[in-house]
Amino acid sequence: MRLRMNSLFCMVFILFSILILRLGVVQILKGESYAAQADNTEVTAINLSVPRGKIYDKNHKLVVYNIPEKAITYTPPKNPQPGELIELAKKLDTFLSMNDKDIDKVTDRDMKDIWLLEHNNGQNFISKKEESLYKQEKLTDKDLYQIKLSRITKSDLHGVDKNMAAIYRKLSTAIALTPSMIKNENVTEEEYAKASENLENLPGVGVTTDWKRGRTYGDTFKNMLGKVTSADEGIPAEKVDSYKAKGYKLNDRVGKSYIEELYEVVLQGQKEKIKTVTDQKGHVVDTEIVSEGQIGKDIVLTIDMEFQAQVEKIMQEELVNAIQKPHTDTLDTAFVVAMEPKTGRILSMSGKVYNRQSREFVDFTPGTFTYAFEQGSVVKGATVLTGFQTGVRDIGEFDYDAPLQIKGTKQISSYTNMGAINDLKALERSSNVYMWKTAIEILGGQYLPNQSLNMDSEKIETIRYYFNQYGLGVLTGIGFDNETAGIKGNDVRNYFQIAIGQLDTYTPMQIAQYITTIANGGYRMKPQLVKEIREPTKNNDELGNVIDEINPVVLNKVDMSAEMMKRVQQGFWLVTHGSQGTARGFFKDEQYNAAGKTGTSESYKNGVKTWNLSFAGYAPFDDPDIAIAVIVPNAYRDGYAQPHSAANIISQRVFRAYFAQKKKDD
Question: How far apart are CA 406 and CA 497, in angstroms?
Fold first, then answer.
């Protein structure tokens, strides 16, 4: 026992001696060196992006989602050396094939830079005289660099592998200490496996899972859903300052148009935070996850995607049918906007342009709020209401519809002489004369045959003020920066033409807001495309809890009596059901009981005089569920005696599709 105890004490003594000796070496011999290294390490916080939130339609059907993709990344040190990047690019080139789009981005300048790195930095191109001038500071580093580039021939570049050059380009443009994508599209199993197996020999290279956006409904509503920038694009250049102020990095993927952009903050999610420790050379020596990220929140649209698909199909079919008619060589476009009158929620919106050469359709849905033109008689409801509001017209007031002869101008008239008519008949039969006389009185003028009107041009703003209350001539509030309020006409002698939609221009979205305001009794509603924000879920078939419900927004209440509004509503019902209604042939026998107003207006396209067709209406009349605006600009050439009725037919079919879909959903 004594021998064993002595042996144990000896071993402990020897071990402590070794430990003390080692501590002495560390603290005395190498203490300063280790202290310097410790002082030179630096901790940096890095934020990593996470998948975006999903987008659902109003019926909770998945519309936009994330498709996972294998990805190979590179996290560069603080000061990467070009030589190190070349060596790394060559290693990756042995198993990694870049996509064509990445190879196509490689420029001659990139190839020359690589050639210089592989050939002693091009020193052989510099003559002794040039070197002497450089030493005398008569030539700069930049001058020598340009000389070298100019002396590299095309044959020299044949030895530079383009695939390797594409990899080098990715490595050299990566942001220090921030994971950047080398390849995140079409990464093969073999490429992913080889990268994973050789990470020790590939400093800074990593493997992960990236994502791309997928769509359930293909091209339906595609433009308005918007786009997301790629890892190469990062933040759009024109919005760098704005995004950086919110904590974004230059290579962050962000929404770059419409819904993806408008709801960027919601869809982006909470980034993963990583603490990175680097040594004095800038190389990463340790990483630690500070907080895990959270994928973006999901949004629920107001759009019914099945109804949207039907609307787009209807528009395309009726455009093709109308184009078969004579004198329609100027026709190629149509717009539809459908809204809930009581909430302002958009049920469907679409713009279609037909290419006669390719016989294909191009989506132009943003045109519903960026494209304004003469809308014609659909605005006559606003004219009658403005007459009531300004006191120049009384409910039920009669006037005589006969051609007007204004001094110094050609005779103007309605499409037929209507004789004595009141406000209801003026709407039902779409009297121009009744509307003109209303506007002339508001403008302080008086019509007398063969006399000047003597209008007060400044009072045009009175009419515009009241039109604005319905959404005509002002931004609708849909939320996109490129929305237009339309163009104000400046033909002073013809200011009264505003009464029939022939002076100022309006967008389809403005017309939709206007008809919605009349349908709901005078509340101008803000058009909305999103109704809910929800917690994210990993399963595409499940929705998370509601975080925020987007409530309807009343922009203003029209200042008038309920009796005045009901009078115009009754006039709109006569348009579709009256014995002389301009749209009775399309809506009189329809079960959904629509009310509305037709429109025809003069326009021009490529110097040719044309006619725009429009319809704005709602249904059911007594308790409306839907309000629509349909516009077909440049529908046919002037002088065509038998015009088509594309706007009315599209409206009829859209109403039918909506109520059929509603019945199916119920």
Answer: 13
Nearest Cα neighbor of 249 from 49, 76, 77, 66 is 49
* 85-136 confidence digits (pLDDT tens): 999 999 999 999 999 999 999 999 999 999 998 888 888 889 989 999 989 9
Q: Please give the CATH topology (third level) of the domain spanning 42-71+209-301+529-549.
A: Penicillin-binding protein 2a (Domain 2) (3.90.1310)
Where are the alpha helices (H) located in 525-582, listed in sequence order? 562-577
Cα distance between residue 481 and residue 316, in whole Å = 28
Cα–Cα nearest to 172, from 110, 238, 115, 127: 110
Residue 80 has φ and ψ, to the nearest 5°, of -65, 140
Extended strands (E) in 366-515:
399-401, 419-421
**204-255 residue pLDDT tens:** 899 988 889 999 999 999 999 999 998 788 899 889 898 888 888 888 889 9
Tokens of 499: 């009464």
Residues 6+ apart with CB under 8 A from 182: 72, 73, 74, 92, 96, 167, 170, 171, 205
**CA-wise closest residue to 451 among 501, 406, 496, 401:** 406
Q: Give me 41's structure tokens.
A: 């390490």
Does 377 qualify as catalytic in the annotation? yes
- Region for residue 31 given its phi and psi (left: phi exceeds 0; alpha: psi -120 to 50; beta: otherwise): alpha
Domain ranges of the chain: 42-71+209-301+529-549, 305-522+558-665
Q: Which two tokens stand for residue 300?
A: 């629920």
DSSP for residue 201: G
At residue 456, the pLDDT reads 96
Hey, what's the torsion of the CAs at 419, 420, 426, 429, to 10 degrees? -40
Number of C-beta neighbours around residue 415 at 10 A = 11
**Catalytic, out of 350, 377, 430, 431:** 377
Of 383, 382, 374, 369, nearest to 485 by C-alpha is 369
For the segment 47-74, the average pLDDT, to the nearest whole number, is: 90
For 184, phi and psi rounded to 5 degrees? -135, 15
Record: fold of 305-522+558-665:
Beta-lactamase (3.40.710)
Quote the pTM value: 0.85
Cα angle 220, 222, 227 (rounded to 5 degrees) comes to 160
